[in-house]
Amino acid sequence: xxxxxxxxxxxxxxxxxxxxxxxxxxxxxxxxxxxSPDSRSIxxxxxxxxxxxxxxxxxTPGGRVVRLAQAVSQLLPSWSPDSSRLAYQSGGRxxxxxxxxxxxxxxxxxxxxxxSPDGVSIAYVRGGALHVGSKVLATQVIxxxxxSPDGxxxxxxxxxxxxxVTLAGAERQAAPSLGEPSSPAWxxxxxxxxxxxxxxxxxxxxxxxxxxxxVAGPFRSIGPLAWAPAGDLVAFTADGKLxxxxxxxxxxxxxxxxxxxxxxxxxxxxxxxxVLAYSAARAACPGHSGIRLYExxxxxxxxxxxxxxxxxxxxxxxxxxxxxxxxxxxxxxxxNDGHTDRVDCGAGxxxxxxxxxxxxxxxEIVHR
Length: 368
Prior knowledge:
4% of the residues lie in helices and 47% in strands. The protein is mainly beta and 368 residues long. The strands form nine sheets. A four-stranded antiparallel sheet has the order 1-2-3-4, with no helix packed on it. The protein has a four-stranded antiparallel sheet with strand order 5-6-7-8, with no helix packed on it.
């Protein structure tokens, strides 16, 4: 399934009542990686294959994955500065949880949390207002705010542009509106902000002393922006590629990798700024994705589409290499995508639509 089709299907899921027709189980996708400050773990969001849940997961470079939370939309995780806990949104509330999944705490009603660099405060948005503790620092806020590296200011987006506010409430506009902007991202040295407008990437001085510069785009679709620690590169996923907008010595955009999906993140502890995690299609089964290290290994993801003990409707991807494990129940499996897949129907009386090259086991009713 194409990414845009998958997103559309998931958006529809949120509006479908529980009494509606049974939704198909799809391949899961691992998107939106976020490196921990100590560079030892990566938080990411898994679009659950059962089509109803987003789950917050953490993976270590060794490949161990821990599930922390679930919601019906993005969880937008933010790490504490000591990398021991994460803040996230779920059901209109902000929660915190330890990186091992223990000690979940409810913090406040709100969305889009961002942990301060000193670990004392969490900024979040409620009703369009930017909150830090009991203070309201700004209104008409859209998207996720971002603390400056020194913890003295917070950048945020409004429909009229990118703004920066101090903890005392003094506000300035860093970039005027060229359309509705995305969440801004601070450079590691705190001097610049990167953001997107109309699927184009812009960089501006955080103090508002320069005009915004377009450094990449336009694209059909674009993921969140990630600054390299060295400040010479902004990486992002767009149109199925991992791209880099180089800012020095000359501004240019290069393809770092193909087969990308949604989201990229640099390891903060890498002073050379080249340890980069991103969401990538799995080579063995391109309809599935996981979190990959740039020019290195795949850390997460699977080629398996897994059913439950109930009677499921299971939809394979439009790419080769699926392994469908239907489980118990009288399942209906569609794997007739023109590619070679494997289907284990499991217990129950199952019906499968498959190609002649597909390998099937324990399937009672077969349509080829």
